[in-house]
Amino acid sequence: MSTERENPGHMTPEQHDRIRLAAPAEPQPGPRADEPPLRHDRWHRVVSARRKKILTTAILVIVAIAFLIPFYWLLISALRPGNRIFADAGQFFPTTITLSNFQALFQETPILVWLANSMILAVGSVIGSLLVVTMAAYALAKLNFPFRNAIFVGVLASQMLPFHLLLIPLFILLINLSLIDTHLGVILPALAHAFGLFYMRQYILGLPQDVFDAARVDGASEYRIFFQIVVPMVKPAMATLAIIFSLEQWNDLLWPLIVMRSEENYPLAVGITSLVGLYRSRWDLVMTASVIAVVPIMILFFLMRKQFINGLGQLGTGGR
Amino acid sequence: METITMGNTATKDRVRTPFFHHPYVVAAVFLLPFLIVFGVFRIWAVANAVVMSFQEMEGIGVARWTGFDNYVRLLSDATFITALKNTAFYTAGTLLILIPLPLVLAAVLRSSLVARASAFRSTIFLPVLTSLVVVGVVFSLLLATNGLLNSFLGLFGVPPLRWLEARNLAVPAMIIMAVWRWTGINVIYFTTGLANIPRDMYESAAVDGAGAIRKFWNISVPLSKPIILFVTVLTIFGGMQLFVEPFILWGTGGGPGQGGLSVVVYLYRTAFTSFQLGYASAIGVVLALIIVTLSLVVLKVFGFFKRD
Prior knowledge:
The complex is a heterodimer. Chain A is an all-alpha fold. Chain A has helices at 2-6, 13-22, 35-79, 100-108, 111-142, 148-157, 167-176, 183-187, 194-205, 209-217, 222-233, 235-251, 254-259, 268-278, 283-303, 305-316. Chain A has two domains: 35-79; 102-316, MetI-like (MetI-like fold, Orthogonal Bundle). The relative contact order of chain A is 0.10. By secondary structure, chain B is mostly helical. Chain B folds into two domains: 2-52, no CATH class; 73-301, MetI-like (MetI-like fold), CATH 1.10.3720.10. Helix content of chain B is 69%, strand content 2%. In chain B, 42% of the residues are buried. The interface between A and B is large, with 103 and 108 residues.
């Protein structure tokens, strides 16, 4: 900063503009001391900016390729003959490619049942959480009642407690409720999603107040206001939360691993884990099942790229 | 303002208002589903976990009070200490990489130095969508002794490393996986944060002759403090609760010489393969205390509690 000021041969763009604006039509009275180096400098800057851009882009292409390699590896390993998957783990290009692993997967594992279970759990937790969370968020944002803020702060503060602490009590509770090995047992404990509540409350607080006032003046009950005004207006927030909830549920392992006991109730994550544990050598099944677990999410991502990135990005700024 | 109108309707219409339209009843109807689920599956469960940590379970539902026995035992449990060390090492490693690297990437991707920045952002983001189970599966191939990473390192003359079979390489292997899995989401967090910094700050810095690196250090980094704080706490939470990766790579065994044993894997093993539910609860409570303390210390150091 100071070095630039002390250097008389170098003008800031602002100063430069001012001079040009001051004397637009007048021809320059001879070559001023600082003009040629400035032009030279700018030309240099343009070239080196382009060069810099090419260089950084090139570096980032390498980074991007590094990030894509595990996906390539997943796919290529699933397509290698079963006995070559580990043997050729260091070969970038496969020698033989086959779909027989997928055939084995469909024959030897209930992969479609696992896929269906994953979908049931994702859809169930999205619908359940959205309903519970949106209702509570509306109450916390727009209704008045005692301890409103205390309840909100309490819910948020409890997020500080890590989930693993709950594993054992919830496991015993589910046994007592006969919910072990059921889809409801997986979904229920995660329904009261504190971040979802926070996000939805912020969103509802941002809705224009006069819509609510007008509806109340017209004598609409809070229930009507909720279903006919709030629900349609919070659809974008619901879409964001639906992505977050379904992704969390689809990719979760620990809780469904504890709840689901029989093979026909496994979601994909648990199913793959059981394959890893059962047959250490059956990497053909593990790799192909992994491909099947990743593909639906990737398709969804490419269909709704903006919503995914914005939605998950908003987690970082607390939904604002 | 809202309070006054609501209060008025409440008193005026008290006689006429049907039960389900009383303001407090309305609030209760909207809130109760959440609060019941929350109360049972969180509050009650946490309280129960604490209670159980002072007990030893002799079968489901039969508990015997043992006072602080579980905690005393924990202090001298060498396996627990190992698991805690591994987990702390892992968390520290992820903090050291997963904050500076994504912050720099986010800044570079926001600058004019890159063509097609959003395509890069999406590419780096893809691993975030991948189930940790699949991450574990793929990296058990990539990090195998005859795997791709070693083939690549071999080009530079590095002898094959036994990433998944050597005690002291288990945690670094998991850090490599974490960098792949989480860089993308942190880039997105930091990008959102950087987008909130007013453009004219950069412009006036440019007028003062600050270069890209100076602008990054003097504007981007300090003004990203709230997001850095958020990501730090999130990384501590995620790191200390490490489970899926070691579980996929080594099962409940903990890997070579317990080098890949995390605290939550040890908790899982204690609870669901040796069925010592009380002792496992004590592990959970201690880990929770560590996580909460660490987070509070971080928040304090960052000056989060200073309101101005």
